[in-house]
Description:
alpha/beta; 25 strands; 16 helices; Aldehyde Dehydrogenase, Chain A, domain 1; Aldehyde Dehydrogenase, Chain A, domain 2; six-stranded mixed β-sheet
Amino acid sequence: MRDLFAVFKEKNEIPEQYRIESREQREYLVDGKLKTWEGSCQEVLSPIYTKVGDGYVQERIGSYPLMDETTALEALDAAVKAYDNGKGIWPTMTVEERIFCMYNFLQKMKEKRAQVVNMLMWEIGKNLADSEKEFDRTVEYIEGTIEALKDLDRVSSRFVVEQGVFAQIRRAPLGVVLCMGPYNYPLNETFTTLIPALIMGNTVVMKPAKHGVLLLEPLLEAFRDSFPQGVINTVYGRGRVVIGPLMATGKIDVFALIGSATAANSIEIQHPKLNRLKTVYGLGAKNPGIILEDADIDLAVKECISGSLSYNGQRCTALKILFIHEKIADEFIWKFCKAVEALKIGMPWDGVAITPLPEEGKVEKMMEYVTDALERGAAIVNENGGTHLNSIFSPAVLYPVQEDMRIYREEQFGPVVPIVPFSDISVPIRYVEESEVGQQVSIFGQDYECISKLIDPMVNQVCRVNINSQCQRGPDTFPFTGRKDSADGTLSVSDALRVFSIRTLVAAKNTELNRKVLSEITKNRKSKFLSTDYIF
């Protein structure tokens, strides 16, 4: 077994700065107050095991509230009250005032960096470098969102005149937003919906993912102290207990979820007025990499290793299936497998690439894919591929993968890499066309004519075509979305502001009376919506 027995350490071998004390979370944020939960709690077990004698113990790192329906509805009522049909303090604030609150939160958030990063490692097994990157990228995302809102407001600060009608067109909030984030990016992906929803004047109920709850606890005070009462409220517990009742009230105006299509559909359908519910989804993906006959193999291997196995392949933007031209298949696979075998496996703080998997039963799920592929004719082509111990799974490269294997269509969301040989380019094209999801694709090659013939059909099937590079979300100024079952709505620092708001205008015919009225309102700053102020 590939050094897996040496992966898990005794407690005294863990560097002191990365040790952790159990975090027994009892507080939740509702109506501007940190309240104490007195009911039952969910125990949180880390994907990290420690060695005790000849055995292993899964580390318990804390607990969080298992709230009931009554408490969840209390959080929703606080958000509804704070919004007050658009009359609340937050939705009627000026853009500049909301930006000030967000700046205040950002400064308080930065003070919690070390705590959040450490919890990312312990709670979801993300390595140190990626945990730090997730926190820092989230800070950059908030800063970028603030600047994007300034730009948007500057454009909106003027009156337009059309056909004898004066109008000022601005963006207004939508109401109460339910935000639910994913476990793989429990800070960043949660905040990519939470932050724009807040800053546009909506009030929010936030439910963290099942894995990645405790790392948000250090930020509760910052939320409480930075935003008006009831603007942001937190809900914890089992979705069927706390989320279903929220949707059933019909008081949720926007549902933002980064997760699975199954979860999105089961929750959305509980809303009694679907025509009034706006949805913002980031869902599943099965992004293919297509390696053409003339590809730079070394470059393709480098990008595909990172694309398929960063954070153990647990990313929606991961390359989840590789199509390789049969003429270069042997060389590519040999180099790819050597690169996989060089990936270091270990604890998150040890400078490694492969870390423990956080989901219960995830190792067994990966083995199901491997076993099914082996039974249908594929082979594990990398040394020690598929070996596992406790929550560690050594990446498995499967070749040749065919259509009748589960791994061909299903999103594995883990460290299993299926490789499909092809001689006719119609094979990967048909795969993309027939797929139920359509987020991104990566194309590796050098012949611009061949690549150009792939771009045109691909852009009508997926929402991002990457040339000689892995699939990815960033930069955050680029639109991030998907076709088919992959997404609903577009996220980027500017697109997200539009997703969580609606264009609203004040209009008046060009008469002497109306000119005087509009002039007096703006000159004397009598309206927070109708304004010509310029934010610097």
